[in-house]
Every structure is written in structure tokens, then in C-alpha cells.
Amino acid sequence: MRRLAFGLVVVLVVAAGCSGFTTSPSQPAGTAVDSQSAVDVPEPAVTVTVTAVVDGDTIQVAYENGTGDTVRLVGVDTPEVHIENDPAEFEGVPETDAGASCLRRAGTNASSLAKQQLLGETVGLAFDQNLDRRGYYDRLLAYVVLDGTLFNYRLVETGHARVYDSEFSRTDRFYAAEDVARSDRRGLWRCTDPDAVTHTAIADGGTESASGVEIAEIHPDATGNDNENLNDEYVTLTNTGDAALDLSGWTVSDEAGHQYTFADLTLDPNASVTLYSGSGTDTDTERYWGRSGAVWNNDGDTVIVRNASGETVLRQSY
Predict the structure, then answer these.
(1) Catalytic-residue membership of 72
(2) Does residue 173 carry a catalytic annotation?
């Protein structure tokens, strides 16, 4: 069970977004923060290349000699994407079908983040002095260090993972970051009220969308300077209907009129697609806007989704 007492966390917010500030003013509740200064990033013991992402907390890597390994990230637990979730494992998430479905979408978002940040990258692996190097399934238990930051910690502070309770040495700092994420209802912690997640996005005229597609997550505030980290600015859509949905010709736009059009995309039931502001290779779960600058305002904006006929399907402000 999650501990009720937390250590003190010093949160340093470093962000620059569409508002044009080189350093961000105070952020409203609910925006992502960058508080890597609150946790000491360990020195990597080995360098590897990430060859596959199993889910948000498990990756496959290759060593320099060509051998491979499976790594379970220390201290974190992201919602499942391959099996059913047990809401009881996530404090405050109701033990209902709605709670489990919401967690499944959150798990998809965590996997997408891991793929976008880690897949194909050279990262460092560090080990915790309080833990064995191998877990129950013989997976390597490690911290993943990417560009001087601790990816495990980032999953927790952005609400993509809960803390996996064990004897790892950074327990207090991870739990403190989780507490902030829960208070701000970031990521999976929006599932503490899954009905609100389901019904926040409404169509023009104030009626709930009948299309089956929902805005599962809006992440407007990238780590660091938004304009230099465009693939950490994204919007995730999920098909909550019972049938596949053809999104070809559908658009996503902001209040200022910046618009992206989906091409050749069919979204299966319970599947999600994340639209990143930057550049990359399009897949069935990830699309890239190809912008040269940030789109979504950190201090508030509106995500507008229209179908191929130009009709507004969803409109969600944050």
C-alpha cells in the first residue's frame, strides 16, 4: 500500500511555452513540471541501446557486444496494456469497469511516452544498492538515465506511473513526486474520476460526443523549452467505441487556428493515437505534426477535433 507520509520535495519548474517566455511564469495546477533536481540522478554502470518497448515500465536493450536483455524499471509501475488492470493497485481509482478502462488508456499513453523517448536511443543503466540486479522473472532491475535525467522518476512526476513499493533507495523522493502528480490529477491519476475523463470532451452545442473518440490526455508543457522539445508536447485521442473508427481526414486544431490533418488512420476499439508537435515517423499509435515551434499554450488553450466533414466532434479546454 502507498505510504501516507512523504518526504519534502523541492520542485523546480523549468518550462518555456507558446506564451513566448524564455522562463515560465508560475504554472497553473495540472501542468507538468520538471523536478529532476529533486532526485539525485545515478551514475550509469553500463551503456545500452533500447531495441524495444514492451510497455511503459519494461524495455528490451542491446549491449555493445550485441547481446540483449530485458529491463524492468526500478521504482515504477505503469498501467497494463497487454492484460487487464486491477484498479485496487492505484490508490483512489474506483474498482469499476470505467476505472479499469481508464487505466488501460493511461497504460497506452505511458507506452507511447517510452517509445517516443527511449526507442532506438542510447541510454545508461544504473542499479540500486538496496536491490538485487535481477527480479522475479530474471529481468534486470535498473534506472534508465537519458541525457542526464532519470526516466523512471519522470514517469512518476508526470503521472504516467505509480510508485512500485520496494526497498529502492529513492523511495521518499519518488513518493513525494507521486503525491504532487495525484494532487494535480496528472496522467493516470485522472482515473480517480473516470466519469469526468469520459465526459469532459463535449461537442458543439453542449452534447456529449457520439463519435466514440475522446481526448485522453493533453500534455502542453514540455520539459525545458517547449520550442526545443516539441515531441514532449502532445495530445492523445482514444477510441472508446465498440467499432473501429476511420480518422482519415479528421483534424486537430487549437484556438489560434493551427491545424493537423490525419491521413490513412483507423483506430480500433480501445486504441489510442498520440499526436506530437514535432517530427518523427508516423505509426498507427503515433503521429507527428512536423511543427517548427510549439502549438499548445501552457497557460490554457482549447483542443478542437473535427471529422472529415468539418463538423466539430470534440472541444476541450484546459
Answers:
(1) yes
(2) no
Catalytic annotation, pick one of 3, 43, 64, 72: 72
How many CB atoms within 10 Å of residue 269?
Answer: 13
Catalytically annotated residue among 80, 178, 217, 286: 80
Active site residue 139: yes
Dihedral class, residue 26 (left if φ above 0, else alpha if ψ from -120 to 50, else beta): beta
Collect all residues with Cβ–Cβ distance below 8 Å to 315 and sequence separation of at least 6: 201, 202, 203, 204, 302, 303, 304, 305
3-state secondary structure of 275: strand
3-state percent helix, strand, coil for the chain, nearest multiple of 5: 20, 30, 50
Torsion of CA 122, 225, 215, 253, to 10 degrees: -120
Q: Which residues of 106-122 are buried (b: 16+ CB within 10 A; e: fewer)?
A: bbbbbbbbbbbbbeeee
Residues sharing a CB contact under 8 Å with residue 279, sequence separation 6 or more, in sequence order: 230, 231, 288, 290
Closest residue by Cα to residue 96 from 209, 236, 197, 203? 197
Q: Say which of 104, 105, 139, 287 is annotated catalytic.
A: 139
**Residue type for 6, please?**
F
- For residues 164 and 73, what is the distance between their CA atoms, to the nearest angstrom? 10
pLDDT tens, residue order, the chain (318 aa) = 444 333 333 333 323 333 322 222 222 222 233 456 567 899 999 999 999 999 999 999 999 999 999 999 999 999 998 889 999 999 999 999 989 988 988 888 888 888 878 999 999 999 999 999 999 889 999 999 999 999 999 999 888 999 998 999 999 999 999 999 898 888 899 898 876 554 344 344 333 344 678 888 889 988 888 889 999 999 999 888 888 999 999 999 988 889 999 999 999 988 899 999 999 999 999 999 999 999 998 877 889 999 998 888 888 877
Q: Which amino acid belongs to residue 251?
A: T
CA distances from residue 141 to 96, 103, 126, 133, 152 in whole angstroms, order as listed: 32, 24, 9, 5, 11
